[in-house]
Amino acid sequence: MHQQLIRAIENIIPLEAAEKPFVASLFQLKHYNKQDYFLREGQVCRNVGFLNYGLIRYYAIDANGDEQTYDFGKENDFTCNYSSFLDHSPSASSIQFMEDSEVLSISYDDLQRLYAGIRQGERFGRLICEQLYVYAIKKVASLYNDSPEQRYQQFVQDFPDLQQRIPQYYVSSFVGVKPPSLSRIRKRMAGRQIY
What we know:
By secondary structure, the protein is an alpha+beta fold. It has a domain at 3-121: Sandwich (Jelly Rolls). It is 45% helix and 22% strand. It has eight helices and eight strands, in the order ααββββββαββααααα. The protein has helices spanning 3-10, 19-25, 82-87, 108-117, 121-145, 148-158, 168-175, 179-191, and strands at 28-32, 37-39, 47-53, 55-61, 67-74, 78-79, 94-97, 101-107. A four-stranded antiparallel β-sheet has the order 1-8-3-6. It has a four-stranded antiparallel β-sheet with strand order 2-7-4-5. α6 packs across α7. The protein is globular. 23% of the residues are buried.
């Protein structure tokens, strides 16, 4: 149940054999159904989740009241609204399950215990924050600098295994276009045999 989580952590820092049961003990197993929420807009994010299996999307409501999908998560990904989690502020976005999912969840207090209780715990926290920062900066830069077609190409590159699992209207929202425009982009790319 916790093997995927341990492997994901060991991709970032080494764990001693004695540390693995301690880490596993801090994460609680939870099951969610498709359309359930890990976090709703306005709630404070109290947990970080690790997806054993399943699929999630991150979205916010724009000024027109429309949902704008801005990211996805899948197996072996961590999920959280980190700004809400860190400063205990209400979330400005939602995290919704797109498939039945199994999640290992850790609370803020238990995450602090993890940082303090393993040899490279603080380093693990720093490296995760650095990865999140770089990812966020790249996403913001893409919104300002890349065309919708470039953003779709990046989606295909980042999520090659998700195209059949995500409805196209969520993909078009993620890319920043309406579904008919996404269809035209896909046709152009298919004509050039890019994917």
